[in-house]
TrEMBL record:
<dbReference type="GO" id="GO:0030992">
    <property type="term" value="C:intraciliary transport particle B"/>
</dbReference>
<keyword id="KW-0677">Repeat</keyword>
<protein>
    <recommendedName>
        <fullName>Intraflagellar transport protein 56</fullName>
    </recommendedName>
</protein>
<dbReference type="GO" id="GO:0035735">
    <property type="term" value="P:intraciliary transport involved in cilium assembly"/>
</dbReference>
<keyword id="KW-0802">TPR repeat</keyword>
<keyword id="KW-0966">Cell projection</keyword>
<dbReference type="GO" id="GO:0097546">
    <property type="term" value="C:ciliary base"/>
</dbReference>
<dbReference type="GO" id="GO:0036064">
    <property type="term" value="C:ciliary basal body"/>
</dbReference>
<comment type="similarity">
    <text>Belongs to the IFT56 family.</text>
</comment>
<dbReference type="GO" id="GO:0035720">
    <property type="term" value="P:intraciliary anterograde transport"/>
</dbReference>
<dbReference type="GO" id="GO:0120170">
    <property type="term" value="F:intraciliary transport particle B binding"/>
</dbReference>
<dbReference type="InterPro" id="IPR011990">
    <property type="entry name" value="TPR-like_helical_dom_sf"/>
</dbReference>
<dbReference type="InterPro" id="IPR030511">
    <property type="entry name" value="TTC26"/>
</dbReference>
Length: 432
């Protein structure tokens, strides 16, 4: 309900009764002499509504009111700490939380939040160390704490034990469903992740983002533009929202949105804005390299080579883009070496086609001829013969173009080289 500031409660008309009367009484009481407790209640309400920035402001208002007697209201420190965590200010959250933990070192909520901050600031092992303090003090009767610990340990251990722990917690801890979806995505089980999330009505940025990721993965797996369109809309909703547009996840969402729209210049604008946070992140470098490659091929191979994950490095998308990058940078030999390391498969055949055709386009005729030669032996298609013939003619044209360059030099070795070339041409009845 929004109460008007201009309309009087009652002037000569019917006296408001029931709910209307209560609302007006509450409105008047609030503005006559607002009790300090109201700010605390307002902050809590805003927090649980997901309005973290507004909640932090209201919590700060409560702290200002209580600052003289804050020692008696230490729990107030937990609320801004929670808000700072939700706003990704993990170091600030730690500082605020430390005040409360000094006096209440066995607080379940505070210790769990401290562990979560350590996970975001450092790594899973650091978070697990903090969580051990909570494990030691939690009583067997405190069932929720036990479930919370089991859930967060799965997260801290990068999904280890997910199938044993998370399914039973889906209706107990909200994040359990989301983390199970993430687990299935990491296992490349896109269908299972979609089944888990398809009926979820998103209410938080994290839920919108995850639905976007799942739909994008499903769209790519099935070759469906409909799922890709849905994913693009989810990403745009988050990245364009007032609360997320200036955040790191918001920038990533806009980059994903433009990636699906194939507007790669815009992709790079958003990825460049957060690049310093993801220098050693394989997934980020993979996406950044693809976007950069589609805009300009120069030096992109350096970004691809930052990727260390073996699964990514054996992926055909990675290999094909790296090969194309090498070719565009006049390093066809490195592209050929990528092919030579592959096992015989449909993907190696596709890479061979890419190398043969792209090398031809870039005037790197020797490796193009090599590629078409192998293709012709694997499949006697007339197109492969035509490609090999054209590449071989291209090599010969380069030899002819080389002779005037040699003659421009007065070095005595020039005549020796030209003499050998002419002898070869004569023996093979080729006119130079």
């Amino acid at each position: 309900q929004i109460l008007s500031r201009v309309k009087p409660a009652a002037v000569g008309g019917e006296i408001p009764r029931g709910e209307d009367a209560d609302l007006w009484l509450a409105y008047c009481a609030f503005h006559l002499d607002c009790p300090p407790d109201v700010w605390v209640y307002l902050a809590c309400t805003l927090f649980f509504l997901g309005l973290y920035k507004e909640g932090e402001v209201s919590t700060g208002e409560a702290i200002d009111i209580y600052k003289r007697i804050l020692l008696d209201f230490l729990a107030l420190n937990v609320y801004p700490a929670l808000c700072y965590y939700k706003l990704d200010y993990y170091d600030v959250s730690q500082e605020v939380l430390a005040v409360y933990l000094q006096s209440v070192p066995d607080s379940t909520i505070a210790l769990n939040l401290k562990a979560c901050n350590h996970f975001r600031l450092y790594n899973g092992k650091a978070a697990e160390t903090e969580l051990k303090n909570l494990i030691d003090i939690s009583s067997s009767s405190f069932e929720f704490a036990k479930e919370l610990i089991r859930h967060n340990l799965v997260v801290f251990r990068s999904g280890e034990g997910a199938l044993q722990v998370l399914p039973a917690l889906i209706d107990v801890i909200t994040e359990a469903r989301l983390n199970l979806v993430i687990y299935y995505l990491r296992q490349d089980d896109v269908q299972e992740s979609y089944q888990l999330i398809k009926d979820l009505e998103p209410t938080t940025p994290q839920e919108y983002i995850l639905k976007g990721v799942v739909n994008a993965a499903l769209g790519q797996e099935m070759g469906s533009s409909n799922y890709l369109k849905i994913a693009q809309q989810f990403f745009q909703l988050v990245g364009g929202s007032a609360s997320e547009c200036d955040t790191i996840p918001g920038s990533q969402c806009m980059a994903s949105c433009f990636f699906l729209l194939r507007q790669f210049d815009d992709v790079l604008i958003y990825l460049n804005s957060v690049m310093s946070y993801f220098y050693n992140d394989d997934a980020f470098n993979f996406n950044y390299a693809q976007a950069k490659l589609l805009v300009c091929f120069l030096f992109v191979s350096q970004i691809f080579l930052l990727i260390q994950n073996d699964k990514n490095k054996s992926d055909y998308v990675y290999l094909s883009w790296l090969a194309r990058c090498y070719i565009m940078n006049q390093k066809a030999r490195l592209a050929w070496e990528l092919y030579m390391k592959m096992e015989t498969s449909a993907e190696s055949f596709s890479l061979l086609q890419l190398i043969a055709n792209d090398c031809y386009k870039m005037g790197q005729f020797y490796h193009s001829a090599e590629g078409f030669d192998v293709l012709e032996r694997l499949n006697p298609n007339p197109e492969y013969w035509e490609g090999k013939r054209g590449a071989c003619v291209g090599i010969f044209q380069q030899i002819l173009a080389m002779l005037p360059l040699l003659r421009n030099t007065g070095n005595p070795q020039v005549e020796y080289i030209i003499r050998i070339l002419k002898k070869w041409a004569k023996d093979n009845r080729v006119s130079l």
